[in-house]
Amino acid sequence: MGLDKPLYEQYWVFIKNGIRGDFGDSIRAQRPALPFVLERFPATVELSAVALFFAILLGIPLGIFSAVKKYSFYDSFLMSFALLSQSMPGFWLGLMLIVFVAVRLKLLPASGKGTIAHLILPGITLAFYLIGLIIRLSRSSMLEVMNQDYIRTAYAKGVPDRLVIYKHALKNALIPIVTVIGLQIGTLLGGAVITETVFAWPGIGSVAVQAIYQRDYPVIQVVVLLSAFIFVGINLLVDIVYSLIDPRITHR
Amino acid sequence: MAKKKILNRRQFLKVSAGSAAALSLGAGNLFKPVKSFGQSTKELTVAISVDPGNLDMRLISGMPGYSVMRHMLETVMWRDEKMNLIPWLIDSYEIVNPLSIKMKVRRGIKFHNGRAFTAEAIKVTIDDIKAPGSKSLWAGYCNPIKDIQIVDDMTLLLKFDEPNRPQLRNLTMEGILEPKAFKELGNKIATNPIGSGPYKLIEYVPGQYVSMEAFNDYWGPKPKSRMIKWRFIPENGTRLAALESGEVMMINNLPPDQVARIRNNPDLEVRDFVTARMTFIGIRCDREPFNDVRIRQAMNFAVNKEAIVKSILRGYGQPASTPMAPMVFGFNPKLKPYPYDPKKAEDLLAQAGAKGTKVTLGCPIGRYLMGEQVGEAVAGFLQKVGFDVSFEAVEWATWLTELYKLKKSKYDLHLSSWGTINMEPDYALKRYFHSKWTDVTGYQNVEVDKLIDEGRAVFNDEKVKEIYNRVQELIWDDYPAIFLYYQPEITGVNRKLKGFQPFPDEYLRLWNAYVA
Fold first, then answer.
1. What interface predicted TM-score (ipTM) does this complex get?
2. What's the whole-model pTM score?
3. How confident is the model at residue B338 (pLDDT cuts 50, 70, 90)?
4. Do B238 and A29 touch (CB under 8 A)?
5. Contact in structure between A207 and A162 (CB atoms under 8 Å)
């Protein structure tokens, strides 16, 4: 393994081989580490996509609703919900869902991957935190925009409420929301470590945990590197999306 | 109007993008029944704690993985349910002389690809394991075989440089592959193991499961379930939930502190057994003042093993009465666990003038069953009789590095454990008690060394028993470690599962198991 060589030489060998896609063999599985990790990637993408889809689908409208009805009963209710969702630990929620939905009621499978039913509990667990985050962010971002002069102008010239909110306000409020969602995608695709472990979901997160338990260093290196790449890549994408949302931001 | 139209189109786009995403995610498995995980009498689903990582018998490591493989690949020798050594893929063997063993291959065995089993299969598999540059974990077990000669289609001759009785039990571990397929597939054998076992592979999905179906031409008793699916669920709570929800019929590796959940559930039950894994506290016997036997004695009298088994292991496991486990061949039934006698321990300590001796106990985290809790309990017991204990629970790699500073290690004591899955006394005792191997404890007893060496060259069962009985007595009188207990393996089982009983060698045997 070349562990007898000086550190800088080990690092050089790592970089040199890494560029050629050779990260060594998994110590545990005795197979090349890169495909070993990559074959788990689709599962992570699937779970992240479901969680994000529902988080965005529910989070943004609820956030807008909350902002429009600010200080109402609905607003306080949604804000309490958002607080709860963000402070509830994922592993706890996951275990509770398993105990009640899968074990007691036997409605859905407790763990594993296979049918769409297998996606629901881990999907909820993962989306739950995100929903709160997106609601809060959409609300505050919307509130800020709603106080702008051009919104008042729009109302003054008689634009219907719905148009003001969705066209004039939302478009301007989207930048911070997109930024944070982008960051979350990066994190999710790097493996939702806890959720994947609790639900025995065969994604990158569970591979990482197993590799750490088993001191499978080549696998850990691949997971870390891959997560970093995804994170950087998603951030680049987010920057590009900015210009689509707001034409004032352009790439020269 | 124009404005409204744009909005509508956008809305339409949003909706269609959303449904497309939802559909693409669910496509294909949308219409599969939700409760497809039900059990039938023909199909058996179980969950194990580890994904073996591959299905290459030569490279695989870890106990649940060996169990999975044993259903597809069989071994030259095997154990009956009482853990007695029996020939398996061979009819009989004959000790021609201490340096050669003749084996007659069993007739009528077929491989999964339809080819007949011959002597060649054993030779090809073992030659590959011990080939130069082999990465196989079994190499160490096969290397003593100098040469395998094929006498005829059904007869083999194993040649050795030195007499090697333990080899027979070592041959209970390596699964034998079909030689022609093995040559053709090469390393691809890792995804397509072709052997002679009662089950053949359907599919291995990394991180999820391995499934196998009964092999119709199996030479032995017909396996009971048509299909077995082994799911991999590393997280303890999740594995237990899968059992509780009825998705799986059996789970292995249940931590003792979770047993209550199973006991309280009328559908489930615990099936446990005492394994051949001995957990102990190694003592650096070559270091002042631990080279004084009275101090090591005091340590053994100070620790209440009964209490540890009862409270930390919840009554599973068994206090150690010799340095090796009850099912290992040559176990000495006459020896008894050292009694718990803190008064005597204090006296011994006073006699040796070692009251207040500083002791450092190193314990790895997350490595052994309830390891930290047991280590902490031991530290407490030692403290009580007058040792000044500093207890260090550290991460496995750190622990290992410190321990392997050997004589310079700061650990006077370390918590460790040694498993003997092949039930071979040589394997059980050599590592920690033969001075050639005792680097981490520095224990040395010339007579023990001599007898262990002798034991390897004797083939008469009675004589072997006699030798190892004596070795255990000698070690027991030397107090070279704080012997704690034989570790339990606890499985959780759905009461509907029949024909499954766990065994001390830690292999999960499912070929007779079925759901009633």
1. 0.84
2. 0.85
3. very high
4. no
5. no
